[in-house]
């Protein structure tokens, strides 16, 4: 808290972040007011991704309707009092397009991955087709201290999704030629609901969530309101899996 206040007082750009789950979703409005009162510029609502030990609490992941309502609320309240409300959920752009149509909200904002760029030229809106949605392997990657490269910090450290190594491979060649990265950039390769969705170019779902839930980077993101049926099936399987783990632990 002291660090945030010191940074704000020195005129530095300050972002407050939180990962939203069932544990704290009702606290988001209070966090918005809290962050605004601190003088922060951004409040980032991080998408929950079941990486590592996160798989132990997957039942606390938001329901698709909860995520939709959360992102809708963020959009309706963004930029009030100088605080921009953002999310790492790729569905943000899709939700805004739906909300703008349904509620006739005319905010001059395009929410993309990690950013709410203001626009006055319609051509800038076309950028959302690229910078919107999941950025894994498209405009960022993760590099471990040993040089291993992965598409995103939320991908597990598995050979199947390892891009290469900074010490032993040519980074530029990896960036241009690696098939894994080409697959992540080609949204026409997406499968099932994400592959047929009208918003796949501005959203396309979170590839880390798809991989951690289905072990497939092209699989649909089960957190979308258009994929509720798959989420309900997945949730039942996960609950059963966790119960089995608990029984084995007790034994």
What structural class do helix, strand and pairing data support?
A: mainly alpha
Number of helices: 11
Rg over CA atoms, rounded to whole Å, is 19 Å
* Percentage beta strand: 5-15%
Mean pLDDT across all amino acids: 87
Cα shape: globular
Query: Which strands sit side by side, in order, in the main sheet?
Result: 1-2-3
Secondary-structure element series: HEHEHEHHHEEEHHHHH
Based on DSSP secondary structure assignment, what is the total number of beta strands? 6
Q: What's the N-to-C terminus distance? A: 44 Å
User: What's the helical proportion of residues?
Assistant: 40-55%
How does the major sheet shape up? 3 strands, parallel
Runs with pLDDT <50, length 5+?
A: none
Walk me through the structure:
The structure is a single chain. This protein has 251 residues and is mainly α. Helix content is 41%, strand content 8%. The protein contains 11 helices and 6 strands. The protein has helices at residues 2-9, 28-38, 64-77, 91-103, 122-125, 128-131, 171-177, 179-185, 192-196, 207-214, 228-250, and strands at 15-19, 42-46, 84-87, 142-143, 148-150, 164-165. Strands 1-2-3 form a 3-stranded parallel beta sheet. Strands 4-5-6 form a 3-stranded antiparallel beta sheet, with no helix packed on it. α3 (64-77) crosses α4 (91-103). It is globular, with a radius of gyration of 19 Å. The mean pLDDT is 87.
SSE inventory with pairings:
Layout: H1 2-9, E1 15-19, H2 28-38, E2 42-46, H3 64-77, E3 84-87, H4 91-103, H5 122-125, H6 128-131, E4 142-143, E5 148-150, E6 164-165, H7 171-177, H8 179-185, H9 192-196, H10 207-214, H11 228-250
Parallel strand pairs: 1-2, 2-3
Antiparallel strand pairs: 4-5, 5-6
Helix pairs in contact: 3-4
């Amino acid at each position: 808290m002291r660090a945030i206040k010191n940074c704000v007082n020195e005129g530095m750009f300050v972002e407050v972040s939180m990962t939203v789950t069932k544990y704290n979703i009702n606290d988001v409005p209070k966090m918005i007011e809290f962050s605004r009162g601190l003088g922060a510029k951004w409040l980032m609502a991080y998408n929950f991704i079941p990486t590592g030990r996160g798989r132990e609490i997957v039942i606390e992941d938001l329901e698709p309707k909860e995520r939709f309502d959360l992102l809708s609320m963020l959009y309706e309240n963004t930029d009030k009092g100088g605080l921009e409300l953002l999310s790492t959920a790729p569905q943000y752009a899709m939700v805004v397009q739906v909300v703008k149509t349904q509620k006739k909200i005319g905010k001059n904002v395009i929410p993309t991955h990690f950013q709410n760029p203001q626009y006055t030229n319609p051509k800038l809106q076309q950028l959302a087709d690229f910078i919107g949605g999941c950025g894994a392997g498209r405009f960022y990657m993760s590099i471990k201290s040993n040089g291993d490269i992965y598409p995103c910090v939320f991908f597990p450290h598995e050979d199947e999704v390892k891009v290469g190594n900074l010490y032993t491979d040519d980074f530029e060649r990896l960036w241009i030629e690696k098939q894994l990265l080409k697959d992540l950039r080609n949204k026409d390769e997406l499968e099932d609901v994400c592959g047929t969705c009208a918003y796949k170019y501005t959203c396309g779902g979170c590839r880390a969530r798809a991989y951690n839930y289905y072990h497939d980077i092209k699989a649909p993101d089960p957190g979308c309101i258009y994929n509720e049926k798959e989420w309900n099936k997945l949730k039942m399987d996960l609950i059963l899996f966790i119960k089995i783990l608990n029984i084995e632990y007790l034994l």
